[in-house]
Amino acid sequence: MPKPGHQNKAPGPSGLLFAKSILDFYRNPIHLFSNLYNKYGGIVRMEGMSYCAHLLTQPEHIKYVLQDNAKNYRLSGIFDETAPVVGKGLTTNNGSSWLKQRRMVQTAFNHKHIHTYSETIISTSEDGLRQWEKFTTSNEPLNIDSEVCSINLRILGRLLFTVEFVDGDPFLDALAVVRKVTIENARSIIQLPINRRFGEAVKLLDDFTYGRIAQRRNGESHIDILSMLMEATDESGNGMTDIELHDEIMTLFFAAYEDVANALSWTWYLFAQNPEIETKLRAEIREVIGDRPPTASDLRNMPYLSMTANEVLRLYPTTWSLLREAIDEDEIGGFHIPAGSTLMFDLYLTHRLPEYWETPEQFDPERFSPERSAGRPRFAYFPFGGGPRQCIGNELALIEFKLILARMIQLYQVTLVSKPPIQMNALSSLQPRGGVWVHVTPVGR
Ligand code: HEM
Question: Which CATH homologous superfamily contains domain 15-442?
Fold first, then answer.
């Protein structure tokens, strides 16, 4: 790789305009990035107050940073306040320590375990979705976001450490407090004081997790992700310490907390505006599996379901922004990137670039057909990131998303109650502001 030969700076806001961009960022980052892209182009430099960041929107530049020259770009913790809870887990760690942990955690996400995990997903979501019948009798609306989030947390409890969470579980309440505070802090221009409730919640999560680890050390055995993490060893044959185990388990809870719920909420919002797509998907599900609950192996026979899931994550990439920090100076697209610069990717923007996506605003699952996908660059679409830090739960997340969606369709007719347009909250994940409220009625009634 040739050394950067010049100091050609990318265009972008500096001085007062930079200060204004910071305020705009905290107000509406997606709107800001889209304006910057329209004004300055595919690489935008934001500079001021001894801070430098670059917004990259073009697939080849994203590929370069996330994959081709990933060694030079570490994860940036600039908007991440989760370290007091997740310690040095995968989403905060870097360098050789990250690589060692990644290899060990990866063993629990090997494809061979997916079948077992799917059974837990199917049985847990079946219980959860069946409980929605109470809404059909009372004719009350339900918020898909919070309902699926609670099903997802029950799935995680079972998959990660064979724990049955119930509504109002102290662990889940503590998790909710900690998430709220860390997100508010990351998205606030002023550092908010960490309050007593936060400290108590972190302690509860720690005690619970270390308690589970201690039970396993004392001989209790289960088939779950915690056991696999405890069996994993590095190249020298060493396993993880209790602290490392705790950090990775908390990291997985945080990383898998809400994306699937957000994705399903956006799906029903999109269906409400494109009923013909829901009808087509219903027909595929009826034809392939009829009324019986779907299994993971059914998914490969339902291409329209896969294309629909991909298309939802194109329009609403729930992890909508990724951040890196340049270790050494570099050059991208002919522009100088100083050491220490933050690199920002906005998936929402890249997933809508008209060069790669015909009528980008349209909800059109078939754009993911093999014929129409041919020739599209890998990083024009990256809802799970890419390169060495690609989402470790990618396969699991897609299976969960598709299994719950298929079962929802089999069990219920869904009518939107929330009034469109639903705004986006670009917090830790791309959430529908206020949730997606719907009425559900049993299919066939
Ligand atoms: C629809 C659901 C999900 C989406 C859209 C999603 C998206 C992502 C993305 C974009 C990254 C890359 C972050 C970066 O490069 O900075 C990532 C990383 C990660 N995800 Fe996911 N994720 C989802 C579900 C899950 C699930 C279910 C798990 C685990 C059970 C998980 C665990 C992780 C972990 C541990 C990382 C960090 C990997 C590393 O840096 O080594 N995610 N996710």
Answer: Cytochrome P450 (1.10.630.10)
